Amino acid sequence: MLNLKFLRDNLDEVERRLATRGGVVDLGDVRTLDESRRSLLSEAETLKAERNQVSALIGKTKDKSQVQGEIARMKDVSGRIKELDEELRQVEESLNGLLLTLPNLPDAKCPLGQSEEDNPEISTWGEPTKLGFEPQSHWDLGEKLDIIDFERATKIAGSRFALLKGAGARLERALINFMLDTHTQGDKYTEVLPPFMVNRASMTGTGQLPKFEDDLFHLDDPDFFLIPTAEVPVTNIYREEILDGAQLPICFVAYTPCFRKEAGAHGRDTRGLIRQHQFNKVELVKFARPEESDAELDQLLADAEGILQALKLPYRVVDLCTADIGFSAARTFDIEVWLPGQQLYREISSCSNFRDFQSRRASIRFRREAGSKPEFVHTLNGSGLAVGRTVVAILENYQQEDGSVVVPEVLRPYMGGMEKIG
RNA sequence: GGAGGAGUGGCCGAGCGGCCGAAGGCGGCGGUCUUGAAAACCGUUGAUGCGCAAGCGUCCGUGGGUUCGAAUCCUACCUCCUCCGCCA
Fold first, then answer.
1. Which has the closest alpha carbon to A190: A255, A239, A246?
2. R_g of chain A computed on alpha carbons
3. Spacing of C-alpha A305 from chain mean position
């Protein structure tokens, strides 16, 4: 959520900066609602002040017959207050509803662009793998090795599900453990295992609601949502809390499955593990002081890159342009891993700084020192990494001409010493 | 699922329908004393909205209601605790 005061004073600038995300932005309604809110508020508060005064007087008066007139008048005043409060409630509901649909302001440093084509590549690591033979796709490899069964997953659940088997299931589990162990080394990140279902307030806090309900799996009774990323439950750990500034930054790492409807992706990535309704992810989440969040984003990105480097998987980093950053983000770096089967780089991690956008929605604040005023923290998160896509990358990059797959060295201890699948 | 009990400030804990944003304690902060620290003593210490400010408003789990006036009364919901049942 944007700062209403800032928005009020810089309406044109906000419109212009939001428009860099694409489309036209008209904040006229925000102005109108804000103005009527303030005028209703001041009228209601004046009456409340009067009522408080007169009621105190009535209270002090022993002989109530002397104040019958005041009591009658206050009855009217109270009626009027009730009307105004109701009007105010409606205006605030509209205003708040509107504010909740406005995306975050892109950072000044966020590159301008019209589409993902305009995302500048800022670094590369390793060389795209040269296999010396015709590479197979991970879905062919997986099926031939009998470690991924898409057909039966479809029978059990439906399309966009996978059944991992044998060394495939073991590889997924090995990756989760390897990632968690790596990130928690030296107490950099504290491991958490959060609920996989959350309520509406949590979804609103991180920005999935109210705009993106269609992308979420929902349970009617109780009114819960399956998490689309661990970002949601982990960021909401501190919703409506005031943190001690001395403890910042607070860094969490969480493994969770993630559930997404992929409603807008019909026909895209229908084969393979790339786009599933359910996938595993190890997520990094940080709560930082505002002045430190840029540096924390760099570190977060480096931590995510560290996993790919340890696995010796080639990748590049792109700086998402204004048209491509997510709703809640102010700045985002994507890590894209090389996939020989498809001969392209594919997103495997997305690392973002949300600044105070989520912390305003979720009311997550901190005190610099005892006695100072609460300020909003900056929240950040990034995949460290998407596990399913890491399996894809390993199968495709480590495949051999005979269709077997070499297990990356760092994973062997997690695979019971297995050096090769197949 | 059934039966009881409870939700007050960072924490514990008082609170008669008006003098309660809320006693008291702990903790925090500042000070006195001390070579320094502890102890003791004194003072101070919630959040938020509108406003340049003075100030005014709001917040005692959440939402409704009664009343001139609600932390205090009524009501629904939420959460927690105890007991019974069921259960990985």
1. A255
2. 27
3. 19
Residues with Cβ < 8 Å from A273, sequence gap 6 or more?
Answer: A138, A139, A142, A148, A162, A279, A388, A389, A391, A392
* pLDDT tens per residue, range A264-295: 777 788 899 999 999 999 999 999 999 999 99
**Secondary structure (DSSP) of A189-220:** SEEE---SEE-HHHHHHHT-TTTTGGGS-EET
- How does pLDDT run across A286-325, given as a tens digit for each residue? 999 999 999 999 999 999 999 999 999 999 999 999 999 9
Q: Which nucleotide is closest, CA of A367 to its C1'?
A: B10
Task: List the structure tokens of A60.
Answer: 């002090």
Which residues of A are catalytically annotated?
260, 275, 347, 350, 389
Q: Which two tokens stand for residue A15?
A: 């419109």
Checking each nucleotide's C1' against the CA of A34, the nearest proves to be B50
CA atoms of A55 and A32, how far apart (whole Å): 34
CA distance A104 to A352: 12
Q: Which of A75-79, A196-200, A314-318 has the highest mean pLDDT?
A: A314-318
Give the pLDDT band (50/70/90) at residue A102: very high
Ramachandran angles phi, psi of A286, nearest 5°: -130, 145
Asked if A142 contacts A148 with a C-beta cutoff of 8 angstroms, the reply is yes
Distance A87 CA to B67 C1' (A): 22
Contact A223, A194 (CB under 8 A): no
- Residues A172, A385 contacting (CB under 8 angstroms): no
Q: Quickly count: other Cβ atoms within 10 Å of residue A108's Cβ.
A: 8
Q: Residue A37 CA to B57 C1' — how many Å? A: 14
